[in-house]
Amino acid sequence: MSANILIGTAPRGEPVEIDIKELLATRLLVQGNSGSGKSHLLRRLLEESASIVQQVVIDPEGDFVSLAEEFGHVVIDGSAYGEAEIARLGARIRQHRASVVLALDELEIDQQMKCAAQFLNALFDAPREQWYPALVVVDEAQMFAPAAAGEVSEEARRVSLAAMTNLMCRGRKRGLAGVIATQRLAKLAKNVAAEASNFLMGRTFLDIDMVRAADLLGMERRQAETIRDLARGQFLGLGPAISRKPVSVNIGAVKTGAKSVTPGLAPLPTATTEELRELLYDNLHVEPERTEFHRPAPRVDDAETLARRIAANELLEPTTAQARERERERERNEPGAEESRAAMIEIMNAMAEEDDCTFQSSTTLFQDFTIRCRMKGISVRGLDATMFRRGFAAALAGIENPDDPRWEDLINLSKHVPDDALAPFYVIARAAMDGKPCPDDMDLARIYGTSSPRRVQRLLDYLEKDGLIVVRTDFSGKRSVALPDLGVTTRPEEA
């Protein structure tokens, strides 16, 4: 099986190939300003080598997930897993030699860096018998290996930079070949960029980046201006896996597409200013009208069919008196308001005890609740979806009867908490009121209806910024959560 892939063509039409075997030993650096065609180049490289070598893609923008449909890559949503799960996934990828795309587009930059670092470290720490060759492609590498501290936290920068340095400096012996792409060489850590022996340089405008690119390509500084004149999708290549001398290459076509595309021009609306103003501001405070329900036209039968249906009593309607009597009978059999409320609370408590109930949508839960109420003859006319969500949140926290005077202050305080955050808030508050430790992140994640502890951390940050809770972590790492408005605090517990 040939290990050479066609990456594109030279200006005169000659094919330009990349030797994958050599690339695995010498690594690749791709550089070019936004719009120069870096992602297109990486996509061409991945598509052409998909059947030759295992591929691992660190994708901060979610642009490479389309590889799954055409080439069978497994897409891993970084926002859906905790650190331990990401580490286990990284270990299994080395074990089973799966080609994957780690999509990080749902995470903030700090979380992207930490998730990528955990993932790369798991690949790096695989046992020796699993050191199979693999291309590790990192798009927007300047985010994960920044040359200087920026707006991200120092902890995130440190762990991410260490993981990227391991990949480029020590990954070769473990079968990991780094392919990194960056918009700005000046923003990429030098010890990471310096480990690449192959280069593909695209269009660059800033002098400092042009000079560094020219130096890496072995060009004289006066020739650096040519890098500014490169067309979109045109790169200068050099390295043992590409060419011994700088060669210009126009990247070939690809089969898959990116999620983000360059916007094109579209015709502007022909409406006048007054018409546009009316469209924007007319009935701004009024909700859209509901679609009216149209009854189907009555069926028209022939005389014989109509007589047969009448004989079978299919068309007989109850009289108005009969209908009213039936309605009064239903009202007599319905339980009273207090009895109905107690029965509803009992149903909510039973639903809250079911496994994985928090992972169902609120609409599904409300429908299930109404069906259970009707089966017991309980009317739900006075209960809407919002009231149900707040009552169900109390049931999840083990507050069996919200009408108990013990919970009065908590229920009043909870009016300032959004519906989706109410259940974890109730759980924390009840632990504080009972003098118990705060539930750990995994328990709160389950109550919150997620498998990502990171979302729980963001929830706690939101509640703390809103003044509802105060989170304290002592020097021994024990966490406690206080509710200032209630004057209670959970017992310290490991964070």
From TrEMBL:
Domain AAA+ ATPase: 24-214
Region of interest (Disordered), ranges: 316-340
Lineage: superkingdom: Bacteria
Bias-annotated ranges (Basic and acidic residues): 323-340
SUPFAM superfamilies in the cross-refs: P-loop containing nucleoside triphosphate hydrolases
Protein's name in the database: AAA+ ATPase domain-containing protein
InterPro entries, sorted: AAA+_ATPase, ATPase_Atu1862_pred, HerA-like, HerA_central, P-loop_NTPase
